[in-house]
Amino acid sequence: MCVMIAAVTQGAVSNANAGRRVVRGLALAAVAGYIGLLLVGWMLNAPIGFDGVLRPQPHEVGATNRTVLEVEPGSPADVAGVRAGDRILAVDGNPFVFDVHQTYHERRAGARGWLRVTHPDGSDQIVAMSLESRLASPSVVLGMALASLLGIVIVGVGASVTWLRPAKPAARVLLVFALALAISTAQDLWHWSQHDSGLAVALDQFAGAALYVAAAALLHLFLIFPAPGRVTARLRRFIPAFYALALLPVLMMLSRAASAWAPVVGMVVLVGLLCGALFALESSYRRPSTPLARAQLGWIRWGLAVGAGTTLLARLAMLVVPDLVPALMSTLVSAAWLVFPISLGFAILRYRLFEVDRVVRASILWGLLAALLLSGYLAIVALGGRLAATLLGQSLGGSSINDPTLAVVAVLVIAVAVHPLRVRLQHTLDRQVHRDRFARQQLLAAATELLSQPCSAAEMVRLLCRQVPLALRLGGDSWLAVPRRFAVLFEVEAQALLPGVSLAAQALLEATGEVREPVLLACPEDLDAYRSVSNGVVSAEERGVATWYSAGARVVVGIHGADGTLFALWLLGAASRGDLFDRDDLLGLSRVATMVGMQLEREALRVEPAPIVRLEPALSADNSGFDHGVVEGLTAREREVLALLARGYSNRQIADELIIGVRTAETHVQRVLHKLDLDNRAQAIAWARDHALALTSR
Length: 698
Prior knowledge:
Rhopdopsin 7-helix transmembrane proteins, 27 helices
């Protein structure tokens, strides 16, 4: 672990000499080493003696806490007659105070042990028993299994992320955090396995040091992931000092002069490092570098909240109900904390199919509130029906009070009367929890109403550039970028375009115009993550895109006609809260763009666009040699491409002329040559001349 800390803090694994193999080797070594430690711990626990008294544990008792709260059924203590409520006065002749810790470490399976207990009736008894192995106790095995499972998952997540992302500093820091936390988690596996209590104390110190290192690594992780903010960037220079601070309590423990203060200093260091980590996490979440960064940090926050919240509730439950089974509480808390390392792994791997906030709001929160609403409705119906039946029975006579028919009728009447209120409350709940869905529905309804009848270009621009951003709560502006060929459709007057409309650069058309679905603009490092949402993803550094990305554009939606003609590019900004667009958002934008495309297609029929070349037989006295069948086999677009080929146009010139991408132009050229059974462009020019074809305008 020290090697990993040095590699992470000094960046040794990031140079070219170490490479990815060294990092992955460390990940494998961490997993193998930790599993080896667990196996040794389980083996060492087999000969340790156990009496079956689950509570109180010897290291948790003082002079005022000696009452037995739980005895494992079938254990030596249970067979010998020890029961919950008894008070332990001595263990193997030693008074039951903290010093008995030594006694418990000296116990071995099969040996004779005895307890001096006081029963609730005040009688004393010396109880003798034959100790069993710790591995024979279901509760001990369950606790060890939970600790082992939690540790394996933590180390496994850290190693998996490091294996998949060996070049990422955050992945390497996660490996250090995972290994240190896992060692601390499985502390009890080694603590009770030592015959010498001094060695057990040393192991406790080692586990404590691992916990301090885990806290320092967590702070380190949140200072560099996903991107440092203004405040956290200044603290990065102190990262080596954080690890040194984590080792301070251990050094104090080794010193006789300062050992008494070591626990206090250790607690202060641990709390300080954890508070710093939480501050760094919340600071990055409040001011994320990208929407994706906010989504990733959201996963971490929810994982941390689940673990911390479950632990707090378990502590409160133990205080309110002291007789709760400790193993059950431990199981719940351990299961809850499994979520945290998994959420860390998701975040660093940039795995994002949806926003965790939306998932929680749409599933857990909605389910709880809906269940509460339904329960309240049923309670009102039941109580109201009973009250109504009682009142009606009294008014009709005492003999009718217990009439079941009257009770059923009263319940049905109350249910029907309260049902409209329940429906209204349910609708309000749906609107609040699923507000994004309702916003999309309202937007689509408004767009359908507007675009179902002929409307002007100004109305369409107002819908796209003003109403849609407001409905979807977009923080940035929205724009339309139109090809020069169709600029006339958006002119207020000659050579003057509507507000929010500009001419589209050829580079922007090439980068985004060929994709029929919405195109997400993302930083180069976020491209893979955004592809989980849409196949159309373009780097923000692409030529023609960088300017729009700097202006705030994050999504580009093509507005096409039914035949695929591109009329405009619709550019939208990010959500105001930094949320990401999900699949439903993009689908809604596509539907609006489709309806606008149909309107523009009708409008284009009234306006003569720029001339487009087409292919026709040359006018001559005799066109009998012209092969109409061959030309008719070409699509309209392929005829246009062939006409430009006949004029000697390059693929780039064809793309500029037809307002299409270069790759699309290359595809059309290849199809034309294939259909005409030609090998190259020169043959296409000769073919056009031999077949007496000429160019006209459409």
